[in-house]
Amino acid sequence: MAHGAVGSLKLTVERLQNSSYISIVQNSSPGAIELLYDEVCSFQDALEEFDKRRNTINMKMVKYLEAKIMDVVYKFEDAIESYVLDQIRSQSEESHHGDQIHPPSMLFSVDLQKLKLDVDSFIKTVKKMKKGYIHELRNPSPEEEEEEADVVPPRINFGGNHEPMIGFSEYFIELRDLFTNDYEDPSRMIFSLDGMAGIGKTTLATKLFQDPSIVSCYSRRAFVTIGPKYLLKNVLLHILVQLNPSLEITDVDGETLAMLKRMVRNSLKHQRYFIVLDDIWDEKLCSALKKLFPDDGNRSLVLMTTRIGDATDIEHGCRYDLPLLDKKESWVLLRQKVFGQETCSYELEKAGKKIAENCEGLPLTIVTVANILSKSEKTTEYWNKVSDEKDSIYYDAYDQMSKVLLPSYDYLDQRLKACFLYMGIYPQRHKIPFIEFFVLHSLWNAEGIVYSAEQFREKVSQLKMVEMFDLDPCSYYIIEFSLKHLIIDDGEKLCYSLHSSFWYMCNKEAVKNKFFYAFNYSAGALPEEDLIYQRRLCMQNNVLLAIQDVQDSIASSSMIYINYNH
According to the model, what pLDDT value does residue 151 have? Predict the structure, then answer.
């Protein structure tokens, strides 16, 4: 988010430099505005180093530094805009002749002398912050142990070990047959299970890994969970100790990376192996590991799971994109988790089906809501209240799921974070037509939170995805979010939407980052004094416009988004 804040400031400075209505007076400080612009550009480039080092950083510390950066940038941008507006207002008043207002083509002179101390102080602070940020990325602070209270596990139990997976039984059967049958092609098999966070990729991979008929076909097996942060050395060690349980590596730190790679390759040579690489985020890591796994013509198997569609390199493999559950499957899973072997009354079943539908097919949401329901009163009155979404149970569930979902946002490329949060301005479950993304992109561009056309060509167009599809900037962002399973693609209607769990996360992170506040976002109203620090106010329900207090807030706010689609 700091990247978006700096981008906004950069655009503000650009507009000052290039405005046909404003003349910057720099008699006492020649070149000050150019120096400021250069420092802001340099700062934005420094923030992009995050993209290269995110697999080893201390995310908590990086987010802390970025929050401080945003505060400094926002305050300075406000100071510039307020000063310029005061200058323009003063000159406009002086130019009035009776009731006649000077034409809009008049030229305003803005003397930056009074801002010199602010500019100098900001440049000094930026240099210090940039140095500290880069140092933290390259030399991460030690991690603190996190408390595990009130969070849900990343792995979903769809049923017992011997029960079929609800919603994914067909996938399980198809993959089990592929993994156990002998085919003419003896080449190494590579498969990838893709899908949104919490959809059940790890659970399906685990059931396949533990299935007795599959286990009996492979002489070497290993299951390693990787995640967004990893060290290749540790990944190799985890694989090695599973391939060779009797192997003793006494000097772990002394083992070189080259030695560990050789040991992994030798352990798999001429063996029929089954390796699961769970939760892959980085294509470079995927490629590096694949090179270590020999293809000896014995139908060995590599199974990967990922929420980042372009992270798994399976040029000669097969990719399965796991879908959300349908209404029937959602209710079966919810009922199983709440009642187990007990019966469910007709009245509760009617409300329960609606509750399951409100979970929008994401197994992690269903299981989390079911866990909360199982600890609550099983009365028709309460379940009807939940089914009508008049209870906080869904927001409570989303909060518990945050540890699983939030990395999808935290580890996004810097250039994508503000754009993703921006999608939270729409009402919950709103479907965004493809053509409307061009309107969104225009807003992003107008606010400086995306690259200009020239910057896009320079920094993004060389990416493999852009070269392959010859993408325009708008389509690029849609595909990025789709590949990372952050938005739901309704291909038939050419629409996109946020799952409610991600919509909630966008709104919550937006408030935390002072990016925007939505007036009908009912998961926690902000005190009036805190509203002034939000960069944008969003109206997702036009009924609010009839309230005088809301109208007063609009009058005092710099940026308002009014959405009439709900």
Answer: 47
136: part of which helix (H) or strand (E)?
Answer: helix 116-138
Lookup: tokens for 144? 């603190």
Residue at 45: amino acid letter: D
Q: Which of 363, 369, 371 is nearest to 329 (CA)?
A: 363
Give the count of beta carbons closer than 10 Å to the beta carbon of residue 163.
12
Q: What is the pLDDT of residue 493?
A: 75
Cross-strand partners of 108: 22
Q: CA separation (Å) from 212 to 23, 158, 215, 530?
A: 77, 18, 5, 58
Q: Which one-letter DSSP state was computed for residue 190?
A: E
pTM above 0.85, yes or no: yes
Strands 488-490 and 495-497: antiparallel
Collapsed DSSP state (helix, strand, coil) of residue 305: strand
pLDDT below 50 — which residues of the chain? 148-151, 158, 160, 558, 560-566
For residue 449, which of 400, 401, 542, 515 has the smallest C-alpha distance? 515
- HSE on the CB side for 222, CA within 13 Å? 27
**Around Cβ 547, how many Cβ atoms within 10 Å?**
11
DSSP secondary structure letter of residue 362:
-
157: exposed, middle or buried (Cβ count in 10 Å: 0-12, 13-18, 19+): middle
Helix (H) or strand (E) holding 108: strand 108-111
Total Cβ atoms within 10 A of residue 35: 14
For the CA atoms of the chain, what is the radius of gyration? 27
Q: Can you tell me the distance from the alpha carbon of 289 to that of 284, in angstroms, rounded to the nearest whole number?
A: 9
Per-residue pLDDT of 69-92, as tens digits, reads: 999 999 999 988 888 888 777 777
Kindly report, residue by residue over 201-215, the tens digit of the pLDDT: 999 999 999 999 999
| Residues in contact with 206: Cβ distance below 8 Å, sequence separation at least 6, in sequence order | 155, 223
Angle subtended at Cα 52 by Cα 259 and Cα 203, rounded to the nearest 5 degrees: 70
pLDDT for 84:
84
HSE (side-chain half, CA atoms, 13 Å) at 354: 15
Strands, E assignment, 201-240: 220-225
Residue 488 forms beta bridges with which residues? Answer: 497
Nearest alpha-carbon partner for 312 in 178, 476, 191: 191
Q: Tell how strand 301-306 and strand 495-497 pair up.
A: unpaired
Is residue 366 packed enough to be buried (19+ CB in 10 Å), middle (13-18) or exposed (0-12)? buried
Cβ partners under 8 Å of residue 28, min gap 6: 113, 116
Cα separation, 411 vs 209, in Å, equals: 28
Look-up of token digits 């720099």: 26
pLDDT for residue 470: 61
Q: Per residue, what are the HEC states of 414-425? A: HHHHHHHHHHHH
**Calpha distance 488→505 (Å, rounded):** 15
